Amino acid sequence: MESVKRMPIVQQVVDKLKEYLFSGEIAVGDKLPVEKELCEQLGVGRGTVREAFRILEATGYVELRPGKGAFAARTSEIELGDVMQWFTEHEVETKDFLEVRMAIEPLSVRLAIERCSDEDVAQLEHIHKKFTAAVNSHDVPAISINDEKFHSAIVEFSRNQLLISISKQVEKHVKNFRSKTFYIPQNAANAIEPHQNILDAFKRRDAAAGERSMEEHLNLVVKDLEKSTIR
Fold it and tell me: Do 144 and 59 meet the contact criterion of CB atoms below 8 Å apart?
């Protein structure tokens, strides 16, 4: 018989917040209690609450609005059918955002490889290892969070402030996309090799290969989107 494992405090807060979301006391779009109130109610620090919100955002249960707080995005468990329906309803706008990513992310990779430091490459490798581990353990929140970190880091390494600004503008919808797509295990698995190819290009300082690998990665994301829609 296996020993009893203590649940991490952040996961306990996530579960408590999901209980509240599913309780019938709150509707989609309603604002959740502020951080200070939740800290007092749950007996935890602000860092714990923020990490719990981040996990709930990564899995599509909560929407975080800068300067305004956290809002309910779902009030029931996410099922695969819900994910497929979301892709169908948002197919056109999601493709629009993917087209923008196709324009800015290959360019970001090329500039990043030309300008990055050894420390930047080490950071990217660390993120990729965490992403791969999350995929292998089917940890959807960690998959989403580390996928975002991987792509955001590359844009930051470009040192191009306009690219960084544009990327942040599209990030809200990309968060919504990530919170759904990685519920489909194959979509998550399909990202491991492209991420590795991009990382390898960074290690070799091969900007052309990095740009090409990012294009191939995003083309595969588009194909995954098409497979995920209900026809």
Answer: yes
